[in-house]
Amino acid sequence: MKVCAIVPIKHHSSRVPGKNYRVLEGKPLYYYVIRTLLDCKHINQVVVDTDSPLIIEGLEQYFQNNVTVYPRPKELQGDDVPTNALLMNVITKNDYDADYYLQTHVTNPLITVKTIDDALERFMNNDEGYDSAFSVMTHHTRLYNKDGGAMNHNPKELIPTQDLDPIYEENSCIYIFSKASLLEHKHRIGAKPMMIKMSDIESTDIDWEDDFIKAGLLVKMRNDQSMEGRVVLITGVGGGIGTAVAMKFKQEGWYVVGMDIKHIEQPYVDRFIQTDISKPENCQAAIASVMTTETRLDCLVNNAAIQICKKVVDTECEDWDRTMNVNARAMFLLSKYAHDMLQKSSGSIVNVSSVHAHQTSESIVSYATSKGAVSVLTRAMSLEYARDSIRVNAVLPGATDTGMLRSGLSRGHVAGGDIYQLISSLGSKHVVNRIGQPSEIAEAIYFLADGRHSSFVIGQSLVVDGGATIRLSTE
Q: What are the residues whose beta carbons fall under 8 Å from the beta carbon of 80, sequence distance 6 or more?
């Protein structure tokens, strides 16, 4: 059975101005229901019937071509047009390939994928002749009519409310029907409807300003709960930046999976995978291992890198290949194989590039080239992965006090003096008069990794270099 979901969204709202596109916990209100519908396994197409250019633009931004937009005709625009008239118009004017239709509203941001999928399964598998379905809230409470008469109980018998016969309230969250039933009854609820019971929280509907405030609190609570048990995979976890990144994620409550070519033991790493990611088969095996062992993956931090300090004429093919394989190809492969897990969690990828992608030095050609490739890879990958709710960004650290930096200070243009003099000299060339610390790079990586902080940041390269690259070399 094929199901087409239809969501009518009008631009104007009288009781809560602009509510359908108003920002709720970092996203416009319409985002939540559309995202939920797209994630439902039984829904084949999502159609939005709207008269709002603002919403049409936003749907393209958030969902690209995954949502079909039907521009509402002028004669059906306005606050007094019945939803049934909108449904009959959009379905008869378009040849959607659907056996059934599901209609919901953007004002129900807390409805879940499971509730919708379960409702569709129950309806499509019913053998009792139901021609439609609608969702309800269940009430066990004493009700009275306008004259004070008891409606569902005997006032002289105060039995517990949970023992009263239930009363059902239509909550306007889910309607399921066929085209034939809609046209016959001129209504989304047919002659023999099935009632789908829903929880009070999922039934939350935004009609008034107070409802918007309550919904925001509930969405925040749900988002906070979904953050529990988050998993991050960090490559190059044994290095200076890798260690600091693991510490930061662990402090924030994440489960940390670390990878490195050398065996390490860290209190910040919950699970360690020792492997050489310069080999393609090891990249695939590592992600397969994570998929087997972990229930989810929320972030991939591509941090592993090597740095070979040689002039162009001294760089061998083996040097070039190994640098590119570790610093660029492994990022591509790990991101490719981790795609499905990250899509399920609407996760993120943070690639660690370098300021050498922008401005570079002598005797570091293979490293600089690889980091330039990482920055381009980040932009290209982000275009495709954003469609699957995966954000991809990069951090470009400047001089940071790590083992790699200290080894690199032996290059000819900075050689001479002990290591502390070299670090001090290098630091004096920065606007802040010092080099960076791994913890400062880790903070930037975490900012890009956690969607609560950077949900609108996609495909960007964040330079963290103490101002080193903003000063003209001629000054």
A: none
C-alpha 449/C-alpha 435 separation (Å) is 24
| Secondary element (H or E) of residue 123 | helix 113-124
Rounded to 10 degrees, the C-alpha dihedral 258/261/265/270 comes to 20
Find the mean pLDDT for residues 48-53. 95
* Phi/psi-derived region of residue 54, left when phi > 0, alpha when psi is between -120 and 50, beta in every other case: alpha
**Which domains, from first to last, does the chain contain?**
3-225 (3.90.550.10), 227-470 (3.40.50.720)
Q: Are 172 and 178 in contact (CB under 8 A)?
A: no
Confidence bin at 80 (pLDDT 50/70/90) = confident
- Alpha-carbon span 98 to 96, nearest angstrom: 6
C-alpha 312/C-alpha 299 separation (Å) is 36
Distances in Å between the alpha carbon of 89 and those of 50, 69, 390, 418?
12, 14, 36, 79
Distance from C-alpha of 400 to C-alpha of 230, rounded to nearest angstrom: 28
Supply the pTM of this predicted model. Answer: 0.60
Going by their DSSP bridges, the two strands 167-177 and 100-103 should be labelled as antiparallel
What three-state secondary structure class fits 248? helix
Q: What pLDDT, in 10s, does the model give residues 288-336?
A: 999 999 989 999 999 999 988 889 999 999 999 999 999 999 999 999 9
Q: Which amino acid is at 302?
A: N
Cα 212 to Cα 200: distance, rounded to the nearest angstrom: 15
Nearest-CA neighbor of 198 among 84, 127, 110, 131?
110
What are the φ and ψ backbone dihedral angles of 14, each rounded to 5 degrees?
A: -85, -40
- The per-residue pLDDT for 408 is 66
Catalytic residues: 367
199-226 pLDDT, tens digit each: 889 999 999 999 889 998 988 888 776 6
CA distance 324 to 371: 9
The arrangement of strands across the sheet holding 45-50 comes to 68-71, 45-50, 3-9, 100-103, 167-177, 132-139, 193-197
**From residue 48, how far is each of 9, 73, 86, 209 by CA, in Å?**
7, 13, 11, 24
Query: What distance lies between CA 115 and its chain's CA centroid?
Result: 20
Query: 306: exposed, middle or buried (C-beta count within 10 Å: 0-12, 13-18, 19+)?
Result: middle
